[in-house]
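[Automated response] Your request has been received and processed.

Submitted sequence:
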Amino acid sequence: MVFDPEDAAEPGTLSSVAVVYQLHDAPWGSTVKRTAIDKRPVPGPVEVGPLGLAGDTQIDRKYHGGKGKAVYAYADEDAAWWSGQLEREIPPGLFGENLRTSGIDVTGAEIGERWAIGAEVLVEVTMPRTPCRTFAERLGEKGWVRRFTQVNRPGAYLRVIQTGAVRAGDEVRVAFKPGHGVTIGDFLPGADASTMRKLVGSCAALGLELDPDIRSVAEKAIRRG
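Generated structure:
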């Protein structure tokens, strides 16, 4: 499809930019013994490269990094919802996110959707965040992995298409939508076979490259269906 940015919703805002503050031991039986989930806001500008933000760290690129998971974005609106549910503050970076957005429907973002951030950076939505033991330990909330999954406000991992610098206050606008309608919110509750067929077929027709991790999820769902 041809996407006209004029048809997009009003631009959102980058409300904070966070990078790793301190590495911590991860002594809960994981094969990874250190974690970089402790992210905290930093003043800009912050350079964004193919593997993420300058000053950030990806210890386990198999599960929590690499080009398809270079940047993790979470919405202010979803953080505010969790704050009400948990009766505690959810400051930027607590969920391990690099970017906090305001006015962007992160859960409703299509796989392959692209966002222009500020004057230079272009990123592509690749997949939802899947909660893990490290995240649960970070939050200290009982049954956190299951609860986060069921609520389905996962935030989005992003691939960096065009590098540059970002800072809090930058405009975030949707620059491209594939039009297949398969969103970040279509995975955690359980990927549906027909939805995944649409995703794979549409991306092939448009010449869009699915990240291997999300392609694997889609193909498994299709085989089950």
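Summary generated for your ticket: The chain has one domain: 5-187. Residues 115 and 174 are 5 Å apart (CA to CA).
If you did not submit this request, please reply to this message.
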